[in-house]
Amino acid sequence: MKYMLMMHASGAGWKNAGIGTWPPEDIRAHIAFMKRFAEDLHRSGDLVAAEGLAGPEEAKIVRARAGGVPEITDGPFAESKEFLAGYWIVDVDSPDQAYAIAARASAAPGRGGVPINIPIEVREVMSAPPPEM
Amino acid sequence: MTGAPEPFPGEHLLRDLAPQVLGAVIRRFGDFSAAEDAVQEALIAAARQWPLEGVPDNPRGWLIHVAARRMTDHIRAELARRRREAFVVMQAPPEQQLAPAADEAAALDQDDTLILLFMCCHPALSRSSAIALTLRAVGGLTTAEIAGAFLVPEATMAQRISRAKQRVRSSGVAFRLPGSDERVERLGALLHVLYLIFNEGYATSSGPELQRTDLSNEAIRLARLVRNQMPDDGEVAGLLALMLLTDARRQARTGLEGELIPLAQQDRSLWNREAIAEGVALVTWALSRGSIGTYQLQAAIAAVHDESPRAEDTDWPQILALYGLLERMSENPMVTLNHAIALAMVQGPEAGLRRLETLDTDPRLAGHHRLDAVRAHLLEMAGDRDGAIAHYLEAAARTASIPERNYLNTRAARLRT
Questions:
Q1: In Å, how far is A39's CA from the nearest CA of chain B?
Q2: Which of chain B's residues have a Cβ under 8 Å away from the Cβ of A128?
Q3: Inter-chain residue contact A43 with B401, CB threshold 8 Å
Q4: Residue range B34-57: average pLDDT?
Q5: What is the number of alpha carbons within 13 Å of residue B412 lying toward its C-beta?
């Protein structure tokens, strides 16, 4: 079963309280952790995909106008509480395995090496039904 | 001509020979992991060369020869590496590990295939690892093909297979059939892996489309293989029968837009009569032997459905009795769910709904969409329209399957109009 693990960053923290305010050695430790985490997931044969997303400042909202013409506005808006910062898709045998991986990501080291305990939303990727229905 | 090799008459031959060749190479060299790589390379070489140069007179000998040469190269490289690292412990010199004679007796081959299956389906492996390893080592599929079937990147599948092989190596499983003391447990694990491969193909656990036929066919092929090796085992026959009897309905199971069609509404003229006849014969034989197992019972239930000319002709009392037996043999609440449906068909929806109440406190089903879906179905039978709609929608919100969600939402929508 596949799960998407979504890391949400708070809107407020994106610029002002975020990683950019940490001492350089803490930033390096965080990056090293994330790199090792990705390598471990790959080596275990669980990783389907992983991406980090660019900041919300440059994000646009698109709606279709008449005739399917895209209408583009800035957004999401600064008052939004949370932004998707990145995601992993893993293919594992049970939800518990997905939760364990999410917990590892959540415990990434932050300022002073203290785990950031950032919330990771875990959602099952839709699949086909069992044969007997 | 260049590019990817096209399918050629030797394709099925290669797949049949893969486990035999691997067995022979492991017997000779002992290293499962390296042997598996060597055989995979030999298979790829054959898939390239045979279409151009023709299938050799002794294809099995050819493959063993090529794989053994790869193994010898591998061992030489390994020895050189160890020498460089100043290890003094030496293995047997490579001169003693020449390719086996191409005409080596084929008598061991059949056993070898079964031994390999037991090895790949070892309980020490995770489910997904066992599936991947079985498809590659016994099924002869390439890593890319397996990755494609499970919709994961090839690199991911390569890692999974390599991990699984390490696991087999480190668990120190000997290359022989399991002894009688552990035979039952090991066979159970083996059959479960084949069952999962079948379901993966039949139900497609990933992506919006139903039914990836290749995996179902592969599972049926492997089940036949086990049946050839263990012709006296009732559960092996039962599993093969269950696969055939389920697969027989494949064409009728989805509509033009890929939407799910439940059993009662399927066009039964689309069912595969040949597969049904074979499955019925198998399960009849198995049940007549008297040592009943869960695969046989599930196959027997599938057979009752498959033999009914119309949905309204279904012999529900017999299905109810079979689910009763199955419930006593397995600790699976899904069986109880199906038992409740059968009960509703025989004694009326109220009886089925009462049976469901016993499941409300089962933690294994807490919040499971199937409980809501079955309850909705029985409430609809009982004429409780609002209750049925509410539970169909609840089930739709909880399922992790797109086709099933569409089905449940449509079902609720139909009741509202």
A1: 11
A2: 203-207, 209-211, 401-404
A3: no
A4: 91
A5: 22
B286-293 LR contacts (CB < 8 Å, sep 24+): B286/B234, B286/B235, B286/B237, B286/B238, B286/B241, B287/B234, B289/B234, B291/B234, B292/B234, B292/B325, B292/B329, B293/B234, B293/B235, B293/B238, B293/B329
What's the length of chain A?
Answer: 133
Which of A43, A48, A90, A126 is the best mutation test for B, with the most CBs of B within 10 A? A126
CA pair distance A87, A89, nearest whole angstrom: 7
Model pLDDT for residues B274-289, shown as the tens digit of each residue: 999 999 999 999 999 9
Q: Is A131 on the interface with B (CB under 8 A)?
A: yes
Q: Please answer yes or no on whether A127 and B210 come within 8 Å at the CB atom.
A: no
- A54 Cβ contact list (under 8 Å, min separation 6): none
Any residues with CB less than 8 A from the CB of B387 and at least 6 apart, and which? B376, B379
Q: What predicted TM-score, i.e. pTM, was given to this entire model?
A: 0.82
C-alpha distances in Å from residue A79, one per residue of A73, A82, B161: 16, 9, 47
The ipTM, to two decimals, is 0.76
Residue A54: its H or E element: none
Q: Which residues of A touch B153 (CB under 8 A)?
A: 47-49
Nearest to B241 by CA among B316, B302, B192: B302
Which of B205, B212, B323, B334 would best serve as a mutation to test chain A binding (most A beta carbons within 10 A)? B205
Walk me through the domains of chain A, giving residue ranges and CATH numbers: 2-124 (3.30.70.1060)
